[in-house]
């Protein structure tokens, strides 16, 4: 039986996303999202810092429109990978592969939320099913 691997997060980007390209030219962006953890009444607030990676047009849009402080909604999957560093040390990373990133808002210079200028229709990738409204069953 196949497992289910879906993750939905809402949090703020803690530093400007980093856009890179693979040797084949594919865009990839890495960023970290701060997420407040639920607490018991009266308990101290804790925060988790979750590493995220996205690819292709999503990576380009996040790097372009989501600076530090931006509130984002992420739909993706958990990924675990291992690597060996230059000294032979073995490391394991757990990250979110962000398949869909929604730009919710960003903080202004005063630390208050403000509306986020959404990209134009031409700048956003519309991946998915190509169909007209007449073909939808609802």
The profile of the biggest β sheet is: 5 strands, mixed, barrel
Number of strands: 7
**Gross geometry:** globular
**What is the helix tally?**
1
Binned strand content: over 45%
Please identify, by name, the CATH architecture.
Beta Barrel
**CATH domain class:** Mainly Beta
> In which range does the helix fraction lie?
under 10%
Fill in the keyword field for this structure.
single chain; 138 residues; mainly beta; OB fold (Dihydrolipoamide Acetyltransferase, E2P); 48% strand; globular
Structure commentary:
The protein has one helix spanning 56-65, and strands at 7-13, 18-21, 27-37, 46-55, 71-84, 90-107, 113-114. Helices cover 7% and strands 48% of the residues. Residues 116-121 and 123-133 have low confidence and may be disordered. It starts with 6 loop residues before the first strand and ends in a 24-residue tail after the last strand. It contains 1 helix and 7 strands. A hairpin with a 5-residue loop joins strand 2 and strand 3.
How is this fold's topology laid out?
Layout: E1 7-13, E2 18-21, E3 27-37, E4 46-55, H1 56-65, E5 71-84, E6 90-107, E7 113-114
Parallel strand pairs: 4-6
Antiparallel strand pairs: 1-3, 1-5, 2-3, 3-4, 5-6, 6-7
Short synopsis of the structure:
7% of the residues lie in helices and 48% in strands. The chain is built from one helix and seven strands, in the order E-E-E-E-H-E-E-E.
């Amino acid at each position: 039986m196949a497992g289910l691997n879906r993750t939905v997060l809402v949090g703020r980007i803690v530093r400007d996303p980093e856009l890179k390209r693979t040797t084949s030219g594919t865009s990839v962006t890495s960023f970290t999202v701060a997420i407040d953890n639920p607490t018991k009444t009266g308990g101290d607030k804790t925060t988790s810092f979750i590493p995220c990676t996205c690819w292709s047009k999503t990576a380009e849009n996040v790097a372009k429109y989501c600076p530090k402080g931006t509130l984002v909604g992420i739909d993706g999957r958990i990924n675990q990978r291992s690597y060996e560093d230059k000294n032979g040390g073995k490391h394991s990373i757990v990250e979110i592969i962000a398949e869909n990133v929604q730009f919710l808002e960003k903080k202004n210079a005063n630390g208050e939320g403000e509306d986020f200028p959404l990209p134009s229709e031409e700048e956003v990738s519309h991946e998915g099913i190509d169909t007209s409204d007449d073909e939808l069953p609802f």
